[in-house]
Amino acid sequence: MDLKISLTNICERWKYKLDETSPGVFRLDVAMKQKDGSLRYQYVYAWVIKERYLGKDVFYFNSRCGEYNHNLNLYQMMKESSYCTYCSVIITTDKRTDGSPCETVVVHAIQPIHLTSEAIINEVIWDIATNADIIEATYFGGDNN
Q: Which residues pair with 46 in a beta bridge?
């Protein structure tokens, strides 16, 4: 299964913008229609990680929510993460735009390539985007990442 082909098909179907930000790393700008008819957008990144799952390659997806800080209500955030179907909420080592180290709250998913399909990838992308958008809005004040 070719990640670029699958992402291109999904983005054409849903009218998402797709960029290859560096070789093999893709950024989808996922449009989510709100109750009032407006659109909100969430970046979802995707790439292949070699031999990540029992020696087999995986598709890795993530969306940044915001920089971790000790004032976050992690208990409530973890409770809300129960809405995740294909994804999970994690804190990972990251870098700020100036290159300095930080820790970031991320919604991510790992899909073993041999066990997935384009239909599942479509659902993974939507799951990540909607959950990351809610966490970003609730805990980080909206589109800051």
A: 26, 61
Percentage helix, strand, coil, to 5, in the chain? 35, 45, 25
- Please state whether the predicted TM-score (pTM) of the whole model is above 0.90: yes
Please say whether the beta carbons of 93 and 107 come within 8 A.
no
The dihedral built from the CA positions of residue 58, 61, 67 and 72, taken in this order, carries a sign that is negative
> How many Å apart are CA 80 and CA 53, to the nearest integer?
27
- DSSP code at position 81: G
Percent of the chain, pLDDT > 90?
Answer: 90
SS3 33: strand
Digit-coded pLDDT (tens) for 22-73:
999 999 999 998 889 888 899 999 999 999 999 999 999 999 999 999 999 9
Q: Using an 8 Å Cβ cutoff, are 70 and 93 in contact?
A: no
Backbone torsions φ then ψ of 132, nearest 5 degrees:
-65, -40
Domains of the chain: 3-140 (3.30.1460.10)
